[in-house]
Amino acid sequence: VDEIIFGNAFASEEEFKAIDQVMKEAYVNIPKLVGQDYLAELLPHGDVERVPFKVVLDDGVTDLEKEILFDNVYHQCGETPYYMIRSRWTRMFYGKKSVPERKIDEEYYHRGDVVIVNDNLAHYRGEVQIVLKDMKVDGQRNRIGHIPEADHILLNEVKSGRGICFLK
Q1: Which residues pair with 46 in a beta bridge?
Q2: Least confident of 53-57, 80-84, 106-110
Q3: Which domains are seen in the chain, by residue range?
Q4: CB neighbours (10 Å) of residue 134?
Q5: At CA 89, angle to CA 105 and CA 123, rounded to 5?
Q6: Checking DSSP bridges between strand 74-75 and strand 141-146, what pairing results, if any?
Q7: Which is nearest to 90 in space by CA: 55, 43, 46, 159?
Q8: How far apart are CA 113 and CA 58, in angstroms?
Q9: 11, 52, 145, 153 — which has fewest CB within 10 A?
Q10: How far apart are CA 94 and CA 4, in angstroms?
Q11: Mean pLDDT along residues 78-86
């Protein structure tokens, strides 16, 4: 965003606070890991621009799932299929922690649903995904919540290598 224009005559204090919050979330400086394993060279570092997404959380989301979702920086994988946005970084850090399956009473995940891979797909455990097209609920992912429909247009801006984050 290079310029923000408000449609009303005078922007309210609330509007300025909302823009300030988004701008604070959109950029982050990530220090380079030193002395770590091979991941240190692969992980993003320096000034990273992110597309910020609001998330409406489902009931029953665990503290670990919230930590995975909110306390990490995500980069869109290059090999991402057309039906989801994937970020593999969290599975590298949380892959050995247990993420028990939480069942939902729906047959499909829908555009804007945010999911975390659970223990039933251990190799990808902890990976965060955003659903782009309806996907059958398969027991391998826990729905954490959903991105409000008004923000779905931002999903089109997430291309390979683009950073994203989730707003609390």
Answers
A1: 30
A2: 80-84
A3: 53-162 (2.40.100.10)
A4: 12
A5: 60
A6: unpaired
A7: 43
A8: 10
A9: 153
A10: 38
A11: 72
